[in-house]
């Protein structure tokens, strides 16, 4: 049941919550009837449910890997983040400065205070906990991107909003953790809510696990992942490919928290934006993947594909044997997550044994030919597509966007154990649970440094296009190694008769980019937000 979204369309925040200042302001309260919204229990709850629009959606989950070494966005503001050419006026930077959301969340929290005598104490505690969770979620995103940010916990006048300044990162982080641990967790169960898509205790525990992982407080990661695992509420979904298809929504015990969609009222356009032009969806090819990601997917025997020939691997010769002008053997006999995630040259779109289309990026007779689609890398993202949909579904997709899932919890716990250099057999066991699902060989207990690399590999291939790779790159401080230099796409005759890999772009990195700059528009509205982040 996709219950949250029945309310998201019913609640029109523009009735009074449209921001008059896109960075720091209060909603225009004079346009809202307080009697209408806060003196009625059902409408109060609708306002609470409406705040779920501020959790991650398409851009933050399926498309944010274009910030990273996994993919490129068809030229736009995300492309600039990926290749290092962005400035203080970049749209992605501006979008990450989420004070319009903070203003609206603060308004709803204040509305709950006004509604106290119209709802029960249990409802008040539960509703407040939900909205505070979402506000903490929004704030942590900003802390990660910007470091020091303004900490605002009430609605402001426009004049007040232009006088505030940035608080130290640790102060804002302390506020986030205090909210989650000392208000949200104790009160989220004050009222039992069985609607899917809403925050529950394990959502909070999983999100705290993520925050503490990113903050390198690994003992805390162990504490909170332990709570999620011991709850017994979650398990790995048997089919990795199916995990990201809409057919699994509603019956998927791996999902802990997700942004919900439900046709025909609350839909998205990923089917069109991720697919190619000759597919059933007549796609726009907005997200194109890089060879660096494809190379990460191992041979079925559990080693790098580049090592097969040297190791005398049985699959090396098999790939040579199946190679034809219209079939690339290099993608056969690989980690099954490659097939679930990536579309490659000449790959067939098969449903129930029937070929619906073929990606003809290296075929001069195809509408997808790279000479016609010059931005193409030869690779596209298949994760999140409804492989069984029809053309009408191109802009009516309803696949939920997964924000927290059990597989990630297992990997977070494994990483914490490795970084603490303790209980390494448990860490290996957790990683092997992930690999066993896709029938990849188990890894063995090894040194901390070796297991660290194994874990980082596993995170990349397991969670590609789930919006996590950029965060991993930044928190591991490896951007100077993976976000700099020339990047390439697939090998194609259209590029070179010898099938050289297509050059995509030159990427640039400076360490100042470990933090986004404060958007110039925000500084123009309020010079008190200076000093700018170092180097910007």
As a percent range, the share of strand residues is 5-15%
Global outline: globular
Named CATH topology of the largest domain: Serine Threonine Protein Phosphatase 5, Tetratricopeptide repeat
CATH class of the largest domain: Mainly Alpha
Low-confidence stretches: 6-30
Largest sheet: 2 strands, antiparallel
Q: Helicity range of the residues?
A: 40-55%
Description:
The protein is mainly α and 536 residues long. It folds into 3 domains: 249 residues, Serine Threonine Protein Phosphatase 5, Tetratricopeptide repeat, CATH 1.25.40; 133 residues, no CATH class; 84 residues, Alpha Horseshoe (Serine Threonine Protein Phosphatase 5, Tetratricopeptide repeat). The chain has a two-stranded antiparallel ribbon. Strands 2-8 form a two-stranded antiparallel ribbon. Strands 4-7 form a two-stranded antiparallel sheet. The longest helix has 26 residues. It starts with a helix and ends in an 11-residue tail after the last helix. About 5% of the residues have low confidence.
Summarize the structure.
With 536 residues, the chain is mainly alpha-helical. It is built from 23 helices and ten strands.
Topology record:
Layout: H1 5-8, H2 34-38, H3 41-50, H4 58-61, E1 71-73, H5 77-83, H6 91-96, H7 99-114, H8 121-146, H9 158-161, H10 169-187, H11 201-214, H12 218-231, E2 255-259, H13 270-274, E3 287-289, H14 291-296, H15 308-311, H16 314-322, H17 336-341, E4 342-343, E5 348-351, E6 354-358, E7 380-381, E8 401-405, H18 406-420, H19 424-437, H20 448-462, H21 469-476, H22 479-482, E9 485-491, E10 501-507, H23 520-525
């Amino acid at each position: 049941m996709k219950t949250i979204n029945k309310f998201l369309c019913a609640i029109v925040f523009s009735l009074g919550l449209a921001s008059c200042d896109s960075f720091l302001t209060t909603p225009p309260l004079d346009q809202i009837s307080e009697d209408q919204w806060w003196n009625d229990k059902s409408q109060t709850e609708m306002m609470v449910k409406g705040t779920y629009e501020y959790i991650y959606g398409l851009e933050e989950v399926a498309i944010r890997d274009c910030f990273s070494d996994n993919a490129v966005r068809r030229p736009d503001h995300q492309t600039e983040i990926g290749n290092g050419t962005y400035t203080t006026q970049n749209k992605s930077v501006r979008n990450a400065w989420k004070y319009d959301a903070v203003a609206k969340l603060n308004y709803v929290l204040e509305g709950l205070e006004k509604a106290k005598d119209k709802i029960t104490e249990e409802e008040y505690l539960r509703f407040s906990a939900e909205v505070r969770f979402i506000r903490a979620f929004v704030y942590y995103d900003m802390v990660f991107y910007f470091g020091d940010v303004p900490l605002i916990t009430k609605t402001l006048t426009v004049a007040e909003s232009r006088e505030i300044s940035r608080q130290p990162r640790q102060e804002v982080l302390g506020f986030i953790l205090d909210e989650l641990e000392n208000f949200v967790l104790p009160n989220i169960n004050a009222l039992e809510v069985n609607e899917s898509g809403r925050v529950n205790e394990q959502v909070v525990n999983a999100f705290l696990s993520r925050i503490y992982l990113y903050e390198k407080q690994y003992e805390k990661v162990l504490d909170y992942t332990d709570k999620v695992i011991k709850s017994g509420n979650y398990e790995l979904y048997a089919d990795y490919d199916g995990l990201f298809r809409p057919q699994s929504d509603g019956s998927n015990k791996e999902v802990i928290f997700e942004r919900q969609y439900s046709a025909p009222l609350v839909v998205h356009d990923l089917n069109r934006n991720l697919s190619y032009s000759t597919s059933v969806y007549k796609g726009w090819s907005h997200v194109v993947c890089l060879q660096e990601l494809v190379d990460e997917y191992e041979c079925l025997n559990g080693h790098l594909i580049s090592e097969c020939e040297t190791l005398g691997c049985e699959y090396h010769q098999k790939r040579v044997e199946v190679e034809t002008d219209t079939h690339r053997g290099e993608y056969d006999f690989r980690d099954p997550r490659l097939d679930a995630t990536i579309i490659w040259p000449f790959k067939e779109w098969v449903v129930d044994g029937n070929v619906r289309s073929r990606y003809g990026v290296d075929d001069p007779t195809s509408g997808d030919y790279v000479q016609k689609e010059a931005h193409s890398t030869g690779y596209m993202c298949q994760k999140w597509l409804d492989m069984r949909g029809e053309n009408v579904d191109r802009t009516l997709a309803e696949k939920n966007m997964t924000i927290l899932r059990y597989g990630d919890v297992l990997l977070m716990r494994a990483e914490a154990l490795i970084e603490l250099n303790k209980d390494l057999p448990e860490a290996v066991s957790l990683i092997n649970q992930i690999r066993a699902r896709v029938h990849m060989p188990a890894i063995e207990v090894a040194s901390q440094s070796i297991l660290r690399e194994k874990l980082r590999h596993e995170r990349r291939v397991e969670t590609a296009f789930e919006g996590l790779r950029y965060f991993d790159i930044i928190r591991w401080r490896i951007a100077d190694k993976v976000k700099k230099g020339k990047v390439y796409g697939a090998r194609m005759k259209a590029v070179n008769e010898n099938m050289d890999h297509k050059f995509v772009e030159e990427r640039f990195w400076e360490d100042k980019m470990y933090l986004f700059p404060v958007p110039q528009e925000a500084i123009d509205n309020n010079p008190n937000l200076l000093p700018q982040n170092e180097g910007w």
